[in-house]
Each structure stands twice: as C-alpha cells, then as structure tokens.
Amino acid sequence: MRHGDTAVLCVPQLESAEAIAAAPAILAVDGVDAVFVGSADLALSLGDPGRVPALVDEALAAGAAAGKPCGLATITPEQAAGAVRRGARFLLVGNDAGMLARTASGVAGAVRKEVASDG
Description:
Distance between the termini: 60 Å
Order of helices and strands: HEHHEHHEHEH
Number of strands: 4
Largest sheet: 4 strands, parallel
Radius of gyration: 19 Å
Strand content: 5-15%
C-alpha cells in the first residue's frame, strides 16, 4: 500500500460539454494529474457529433494552459498521429474488441489463403 499511495494517477474523464467547460477548474484541483476526453461519450451526451472536434480542442487547450496532459482515444495509427499533432499528450489507440476482431480476421484470412494454396 505504501508504494501504491505514491504511484496513483488521478485522470478524470471529460465526457460532456459541461465537463469540457469545467476543464480549467478540474485541472486546477490539487492531485489531478491529467484529463482524458471520452469522445464517443461526449458525442452521445451532445446528440450532435459535429461539435466534438471543437470541444476536444477546448479540452486540449485547457490541458496545455494548466501544464497537464490531456489524452484522447483513437482507433487507427493515423488518428493517433493526428491527435498528437492537435496536442494530445497521451493516447488510447484502439480497444480490446477492435484489436481482437482485426486479429481474428487476419487469422481467418491466413487460413483461407493456406487452404486455397493446397487446392
């Protein structure tokens, strides 16, 4: 427990327009180390996915102004690179379900190829 108490990060997730607006205050809280924007949940809470990029930029700017990292979720390497260019300081790239599906698809394709070459 001694080590765990000193190595814990506090990273609140920003998943609504209200949370994005409060990002400067959230980032000012002692003990908050970074914030993470949950873009999918943000889009769902807004009901208007077209507003998400501007709100993400607002969160990234708040993190930069506070000198604390703001992270984003991405799916592809290209999206990850774009997020870094926009100012994201840490990333979630893909998720377990997507990675599992891509791997399973690749394995199935390789089996089909091997079976076809036997024919």
